[in-house]
Amino acid sequence: MKKIALIAAVALALPLAAMAQDAAKPAAKPAAKAASSSTAKAPAKKHQVTRKAAKAVEEVTPINTDTDVTLSEADLAVAQRVSIGKAQCELGADVTVTPDDKKPGFFTVSTKGAKYRMHPVESRTGAIRLEDPRAGAMWLQLGNKSMLMNQKAGLRLADECQTDAQVAFAAEMKKNPPKALFDGADGEKK
Q1: Are residues 27 and 80 in the same domain?
Q2: Residue 24 and residue 111 in one domain
């Protein structure tokens, strides 16, 4: 019986002791802060770079053209199919894809405030895929549209982008839609 009473008393005392310790801690911290603030200088004010200034610097900073990527013959064949020039995108954005004259198979992909040095990467789906592994950017080009994505941040930077050739391809798809996956040779659904 004495053991049960002792256990009950300890069980009741433990939460009270913990609350007493927690109450004592905040009182000690302000005193420590007051003592340290009288001897230390105020921290220097940090200057933040505005988004506009960062964009301006990014636009004039040349992209790094040195790369350790070696393209295969298959990669160079994919590079021949890349749609180059200015692509108009949704929401008034645009993306310009320019081939590198000095290094065949490499491209500069630029949009408002950003430039990427990209090269073709094999795609299982047959889509044309350009990547900038350093920046984490990817340009995905289909027959009728393209998109620019930042894979590191998981964002689409530009969507529904179309060059003149892709606009023509999309119009042709509307006139002559491709056969559905389950259509037979005669167009009948199976």
Answers
A1: no
A2: no
Q: Would you say 136 and 113 are in contact if contact means Cβ atoms under 8 Å apart?
A: no
Other C-beta atoms closer than 10 Å to the C-beta of 122 total 9
Q: How far apart are CA 113 and CA 31, in angstroms?
A: 49
Q: 177: alpha, beta or left, given left = phi > 0 and alpha = psi -120 to 50?
A: beta
- The whole domain housing 22 covers 1-33
Stated pTM of the model: 0.58
Residue carrying the six token digits 């105020």: 42
Please name the residue ranges forming H helices in 40-93: 51-60, 73-79
- Residue 73 belongs to a domain: yes
Angle at 31 between CA 30 and CA 34, to 5 degrees: 85
Two tokens at 99? Answer: 């081939």
What are the pLDDT digits (tens) for 82-132? 989 999 999 889 999 999 988 889 999 999 878 999 999 888 788 899 999
Task: Determine how β-strand 155-161 pairs with β-strand 94-99.
Answer: unpaired
Supply the mean pLDDT for the chain.
Answer: 74
Query: Around Cβ 120, how many Cβ atoms within 10 Å?
Result: 25
Considering only the C-alpha atoms of the chain, give the largest distance between any 2 of them, rounded to a whole number of Å.
93
The tokens describing 120, both together, are 């073709």
Which residue has tokens 């298959």?
Answer: 74
Query: Which residue type, as a one-letter code, is found at position 49?
Result: V
